[in-house]
Amino acid sequence: MSKKQNQVVVKDNKIIEASYTLSLSEQRILLACISQIDSKSSLLADHEFEIVASEIVDLMGVRPGNAYRDMKSAIEKLYSRSIKIDGEGSEMRWISSKDYVRDEGKVTLCFSQRIIPYLSQLTSKFTSYKLNYVTKFSSSYSIRLYEILVQWSSAGEREVSIEWLRDIFQVTDKYKTIKDFKKYIIDPSIEDINTHSNLWVEYGQRKAGRVVTHLQFRFGVKYSQNDKKRLTEDEINKHARPGESRPEVIARLTGNSLSDFAKPGETLEQALKRKRGLADMKKALKPGKPKASGIGA
Fold first, then answer.
1. Which of 80, 112, 132, 253 could form a Cys-Cys staple with 96, CB 3.0–4.6 A?
2. Helices 53-60, 24-34: crossing angle, 10 deg rounding
């Protein structure tokens, strides 16, 4: 969308941690509408949000000639979707009405009365981010995981249980092995976030015996070298962790912990991939040594 550079998505944290499922197209339509809301003001139930097909082509990744058709199809499905927020099984609809204006290539929709309090008049416990940070994601799961991390952006770390993720993603009956769960949901989402968003992220796992029970994420905002120079001493001291040196704090805050290892012109992602490749090569030269499980394993 032409204005997406300045559009901001704001949601109550209860939506971030709610249980629901949406296709990527449905998710994009919702975000396009939510980004039009002034989250600090009140929102009436009959307020109509307008989406024009020509403006959503890049959001939905469709050809211009198919934009209206695909947008209409996505909204038809969205109209029947529900969301569980309280964790007790109570459900509510995302939208209460939809109208089509084919001659003008646009649709209008209204949010349901019960979802409105989670999108407007928000003063605390909410998560916000720029819409353009997620428009190039290839999966709805990528958007969900990104939001879960942004919610804890001030911490830079978050551990979540596999069971909890399965529940809020509504995949309790899919990808039952941790290998498949990581292959089809977590790893592609990490790739999307690292490639297209404003965050860098890596993860490890925690086990109970031989069973993986939790995923441990480390993440931060990507900064340029100029941003790195603008870090103040107060910021460095405020975010320093016990036993962490000043250079280590700066590296973590800027996402440049591999900066000394990177070659000229090489991105941090490329440096990380190369470093992992060297580590794997060293392991291969030591036959009989058990394979270690590390970040991203």
1. 112
2. 130
Nearest to 113 by CA among 37, 181, 43: 43
Cα–Cα nearest to 195, from 277, 264, 256, 134:
134
**Rounded to an integer, what distance in angstroms lies between the CA atom of residue 166 and that of residue 164?**
5
pLDDT tens-digit map of 129-167: 999 999 999 999 999 999 999 999 888 899 999 999 999
Q: Which two tokens stand for residue 87?
A: 């964790």
CB atoms within 10 A of CB 76: 12
Instruction: HSE, CB side, 13 Å, CA atoms: give it for residue 87.
Output: 4
For the chain, where are the E strands, in sequence order? 8-12, 49-52, 82-84, 91-93, 95-101, 106-111, 126-130, 157-161, 199-208, 211-221
Cβ-contact 54, 105 below 8 angstroms? yes
CB 119 within 8 A of CB 10: yes
Helix, strand, coil: what percent of the chain each, to 5?
40, 20, 35
> Which residues on neighbouring strands pair with residue 12, listed in sequence order?
126
Q: What is the pTM of this model?
A: 0.74
Residue from 86, 104, 84, 83 nearest 26 by CA: 83
